[in-house]
Design goal:
Layout lengths: L3 H15 L4 E5 L6 E2 L9 E7 L2 E6 L3 E6 L4 E4 L13 E7 L2 E7 L5 E6 L7 H4 L12 H8 L5 H6 L9 H10 L11 H20 L42 E5 L2 E5 L7
Parallel strand pairs: 2-9
Antiparallel strand pairs: 1-7, 3-4, 4-5, 5-9, 6-8, 7-8, 10-11
Helix pairs in contact: 1-6, 3-6, 5-6
The protein binds zinc ion.
Length: 269
Amino acid sequence: MPELPEVETTRRMLEPVLLGRVVRDVLHTDPQRYRNTEAMLGKQILKLERRGKYLIFRLDDGLDCLVHLKMTGGFRIPNDKKFLEPPRFERLRLVLHDGEVSYVDSRRFGFWEIVPSNQWQHIKALSEMGPEPLSSDFKLKDFQTAMSRVSRVKPALLSQKPVAGVGNIYADESLWLAKIHPEASKLSAAAAKRLHAAIIEVMARAVEVGGSTLSDNSYQQPSGESGYFQLEHHVYDRTGAACSRCGAEILKYTLAGRGTHYCPDCQRK
Ligand SMILES: [Zn+2]
């Protein structure tokens, strides 16, 4: 599933193509999943923002278009304004006054919704979301307080409440970097400080290199290029490989329903 670095990479690449453009048409055949998109017609795209794993297109006339990529959603940008043929798994085409972009989604879990500006209360994940990890809102003191109360640190991170945008890959990588076991509870102030720094470091680096493209190839940058952070993973998708820090074998098990990778030596319970 695309996490913060993949969504942020997508946002940055869409920005020069979408910003200031007027929406001429929104082509799709699934009004249940891509809701109220006719409200975008004739509207100008004023800003492209991201909150956690959500993309938010700010439109004129006080409208927001919320997009969640879920498991396999993503965008494609044509090389020269228009597509010669539709990209594979295209579900929606956004036609602008001077070009177009395609939304692709092989498994069709992603959704679009047009709402009045900032009317996100009905989306629980957005209204309860914690601070952005790459912003000054991600305060160490608040994070230490939240971490001092957790019963299992990884599921707490995945809840998006202590910090936004951390999913399965980046939780595993951040916990490895901070030398914290995925099931550690009630973190000390020192451990929470290490984790706070690790999340910032991992997220910043992953954004810098375009996110992670895994073996299923489902995530690509909108240009069609892969991301490159998978080449720097220390634990995720490295089951059985040697830990780059201590040489022990990386293990994988299921925690709260999610495949979890860790080093049994570096990340003791
Ligand atoms: Zn290790």
